[in-house]
Amino acid sequence: MRPPSLTDELLDTLRARVTGSGGTHTTTAVFTGGDLATVPESTPDDVHAAVEHAARAQRDWAATPLATRLAVFERFHRLLLRHRDTVADLLQAETGKARRDAFEEFAEPALVTSHYLRTAPGLLRPRRRAGALPGAVSATELRHPKGVVGIIAPWNYPFALSIGDLVPALVAGNAVVLKPDRQTPLSPLFGVELLYRAGLPAGLLQVVLGDGPTVGGAVVDTCDYVGFTGSTRTGTLIAERAARRLIGCSLELGGKNPLLVLDDADIPATARAAVRGCFANAGQLCLSLERVYVHDSIFDAFADAFVAETGRLRLAAGYDYRADLGSLTSRRALTTVAEHVDDARAKGATVLAGGRPRPDLGPYFYEPTVLTDVTPDMRCHAAETFGPVVSLYPFDDDDEAVALANRTEYGLNASVFGRDRRRAAAVGARLRVGTVNVNDGYASAYGSTDAPMGGVGASGLGRRHGAEGLLKYTESQTVATQRVALLDPPRRLPYGLFAKAMTGSLRIMRALGIR
Ligand code: NAD
User: Fold this and answer.
1) Distance (Å, rounded) from C-alpha 19 to C-alpha 419?
2) I need a surface site. Which of 23, 201, 237, 513 has the fewest CB within 10 A?
3) pLDDT at residue 486 in the model
4) Strand pairing category for 175-179 and 148-152
5) 84-98: per-residue pLDDT in tens?
6) 432 with 284, same domain?
């Protein structure tokens, strides 16, 4: 089932954007399990060539005034909004997600582009810093691009996690070599195409495709910085490989995210919002909530409301907004989800909703599933299921909820529901996670592109969005100018006297709060 906008002509245009001489790969049309598109594959030599080409283009780009660079992204933003439906079509075809999830994904790079259009001039401009001695030394902090940034993206949000991450890298004056996941090259390639249509200089943004360890590995071995989103296992390998070259990397990894329902939560409103937080993108969202902790006093009422809301979710394949939930993206994802649920069921968990695949809708559909009585020996207790499976657990008081929520190696996202928003936010601040959403699942924090987003512990290193989401693609350089030679003693002054005078200066400067 190819969407109408994926014409042969568009496919040829997208294929032409790949640096690939290593054969071809055919992706799957997820709604049917048939073939979707055949795209070129890259070899490690292709990656080297792409990086060299990108590096050549980067020199001129870095020397281009920021205002001229930003004009490209101004046009890109307009083009992106105009091509919303094509982005959604490609995303649905290659991931099987519901159209509303595709729309949400489309919105992120638009928000990110708009955000950095506003903030990049302030973040990248030279900044006066306090010099070593007031009046004697002045200091300026400059921001230089890293060079060629490698972006390695996963299949679950292939458009947002490639285009949304590479736009700030380009804005900062870098070139980019992008490696999307093998199953999901079309939507990122369309984003790349739109950037070139918006006026990006030739060669500055390269795309390589292929096997993760081979092609992704070559990206890490050749670029000057790596932005990676994917599993914790692969992220660890990338960190090791980057460390060998002493290049920086940001790692946006997995999660086993908790949702806390405090005793004063509005039950119907919480159940409605929680269903979205747990099952958006069929649970294949790094931020989605897989562990739901509910205060004892409202556990049964909440479980009833949550199960009822889950039952109302419409599952369907189709290029329109009718479905709440789409398909899982692959046979592998379906197998993991089914294994987690079957294992929990076999070990005594209660299935309150869902719990079975839906081959009648498409080969990889699985019902949104709610479990209780989940114990630590079950796989879904601590491991990321990355599917539409959520477990409900009771707690006695806020301290216990915080302790339970923090009992994980991950630390990506969390959600706290309560009528007293201040209290809920205070509980959230005690959670060991990178983002907390009060009375929402994930979209509030993720959509707040002015604020950083990322994980702690096994959920990663570094942040996207906010100042860090741009500055991580830069090297700072301090240029300090000595105006008056006061940092060494005059020729005839014994060093002991100089040290004494300097100590006095340090005392005075501290007292005056100058340094
Ligand atoms: P993955 O780690 O298998 O693959 C991610 C990307 O890395 C793909 O492009 C893949 O080809 C490439 N890759 C694989 N092995 C590689 C290697 N050895 N060297 C270099 N590149 C390699 O992850 P996945 O299964 O595609 O994605 C799902 C995971 O991503 C989940 O754990 C999810 O939680 C996580 N994720 C995190 C975020 C976040 O922002 N924190 C967002 C989305 C997904």
Assistant:
1) 53
2) 513
3) 84
4) parallel
5) 999 999 999 999 999
6) yes
CB 449 within 8 A of CB 467: no
- CATH code for the domain of 264: 3.40.309.10
- Domain end, chosen from 395, 414, 449, is at 449
**Side chain identity at residue 208, one-letter code:** V
Q: Catalytic residue at 252? A: yes
With respect to residue 485, please indicate whether it lies within any of the assigned structural domains. no
Residue 217 Cβ < 6 Å to ligand 1:
yes
Q: Residue range 395-424: average pLDDT?
A: 98
Q: What is the pLDDT of residues 457-479, one digit of tens each?
A: 999 999 999 999 999 999 999 99
Place of tokens 């299935």: 351
Q: Is 172 left (phi over 0), alpha (psi -120 to 50) or beta?
A: alpha
In this prediction, residues 39-49 reach a mean pLDDT of 98
CB 409 within 8 A of CB 416: no
Q: Is the CB of 254 within 6 Å of ligand 1?
A: yes
Q: Which three-class secondary structure state does DSSP give residue 86?
A: helix
Give the pLDDT confidence score for residue 19 in this predicted structure.
97
* pLDDT of the residue at 2: 85
Of 206, 177, 390, nearest in space to 289 by CA: 390
Residue 164's CATH number? 3.40.605.10
Considering only CA atoms, which residue is closest to atom 34 of ligand 1?
A: 254
pLDDT in tens, 128-186: 999 988 889 999 999 999 999 999 999 999 999 999 999 999 999 999 999 999 999 99
Distance (Å, whole) CA 51 – CA 31 = 35
pLDDT value, residue 294: 98
Q: Which of 27, 234, 286 to mutate to test the pocket of ligand 1 (most atoms within 8 A of CB)?
A: 234
302, 418 in Cβ contact below 8 A? no
CA 373 vs CA 217, 275, 278: distances in Å: 42, 19, 18
> Which element (helix H / strand E) includes 191?
helix 186-197
The three-state DSSP-derived secondary structure of 419-468 is CCHHHHHHHHHCCCCCEEEECCCCHHHHHCCCCCECCCHHHEECCECCCH
Q: Which of 94, 252, 367, 468 is catalytic?
A: 252
Rounded CA-CA distance 256/386 in Å is 9
Q: Phi and psi of 357, rounded to 5°?
A: -70, 160
Q: What is the pLDDT of residue 13?
A: 98
**Average pLDDT rounded to a whole number, residues 420-445:** 98
The whole-chain average pLDDT of the chain stands at 97
How many independent structural domains does the chain possess?
A: 2
238 lines ligand 1 (CB under 6 A): yes
207 within 8 A of 17, measured Cβ to Cβ:
yes
Angle at 52 between CA 145 and CA 192, to 5 degrees: 70
pLDDT of residue 487: 84
Instruction: Please name the residue whose Cα sits nearest to atom 22 of ligand 1.
Output: 212
227 C-alpha to ligand 1 centroid (Å): 11
